Amino acid sequence: MRRIIVESPGFLSTVQDGGRYGYQRYGIPPSGAMDEFAFQVGNILVGNERNAAGIEITLAGFSVKFDGDFEIAVTGADLNATVNGKKIETWRSTYVKRGDILKFERVNKNIRAYLCVNGGIDVPRIFGSRSTYMRMNMGGFQGRKLQKGDILPVGSPSSLSTSSMKVNDSILSLVYSPRNIRVIPGPENKLFSKKDLDLFFSSLYSITNQSDRMGYKLKGPSLNSKRISHDIISNGIVKGAIQVPSNGQPIIMMAEHQTIGGYAKIATVISADISLLSHMKPADKIYFEKITLEEAHQLYCQIQNILESLENESRKKRKSKIFFVEIGEKAYRLKIRPLE
Fold first, then answer.
1. pLDDT at residue 229, rounded to an integer
2. Is 198 left (phi over 0), alpha (psi -120 to 50) or beta?
């Protein structure tokens, strides 16, 4: 069995996949990768299904030793990833051997990186997902953040690339270039006065240090709804929803958001901008930009088309099939390539 051994857990590192859906009515949030684009691209680069489990690394200090040969990809933030002390390119598939050590040494740009390995992290599924949800001690590796000495099993890869694959900078620029965070107004924006709506879309907000994978608490001009109270009858919450509690300071719901909420929601961050938002940290500034639902749909489709194009490119490079066969106490790796 191929394994990954945690040498140093870093600030916060967890096993995540595409999320745990279908259980919000029971109070279980989706969880999953904060930056879905980087996470899915990482899996595509190593030939996995898009939502196979990988490792989300927040800030620097994480390192692992590979117990086996792997095709890996590091995407998301530039945390100065090195293998045996030599810097490797992010957003590219690469190969490591048994005994190699991967380290994330410092933050160069953004804050969350993803380590994807061919075969995926093979921890048990809980309610259909391998994602870690620490508040309920659920999923991932023992329901918690990774610790020194943890040994993560890795599944068998279905294919192996015949050449390294890299994501173009033009694609990354499209997703991560600094810009206003685009939102769709509502669903309870009618509870806010025109003055407050204008204030929300014209003001600068800061991310506070009371922010995490559940939500980003903001600091800026206070918003006062038309109603005496900001409370509403509790209803469903989605990732990107912007709630306004009684203190008038907005909160953006992120991957581990609660399933229902009783604060009025002034707007919702569009799916295409969640990846950019996921790399913001305390003291970073945000301007919100209002767009239409139709524009949001177009931007979503643009991202999906990019992912499908990368997936098609990856399939073309993967002609070999890898099988792991155990005979007695020995394991063998068989590589089968179709005749041209």
1. 58
2. alpha
Alpha-carbon torsion, ordered 299, 301, 302, 303, to 10 deg: 90
∠327-333-336 over CA atoms, to 5°?
A: 120
- How many residues would you count in the chain? 340
Cα distance between residue 311 and residue 17, in whole Å: 17
Alpha helices (runs of H) in 246-332, residue ranges in sequence order: 274-278, 293-317
Instruction: Report the half-sphere exposure of 151 (CA within 13 A, side-chain side).
Output: 5
CA angle 155, 129, 260 (to 5 degrees): 160
Backbone angles phi, psi at 170, to 5 degrees: -65, -35
In the chain, where does DSSP find H-type helix?
36-45, 169-176, 194-202, 274-278, 293-317
CA distance linking residue 158 with residue 69, whole number of Å: 14
Decide if 50 contacts 18 (C-beta within 8 A).
yes
Report the predicted TM-score, pTM, of the whole model to 2 decimal places.
0.91
User: Tokens 């051994």 sit at which residue?
Assistant: 5
pLDDT in tens, 186-226: 899 888 999 999 999 999 999 999 999 999 999 999 998 66
In angstroms, the CA 204 to CA 219 distance is 9
What is the structure's pLDDT at 338? Answer: 55
Reply yes or no on whether the pLDDT at 87 is more than 90. Answer: yes
Confidence at residue 228, expressed as pLDDT on a 0 to 100 scale: 47
Q: Can you tell me the distance from the alpha carbon of 166 to that of 149, in angstroms, rounded to the nearest whole number?
A: 31
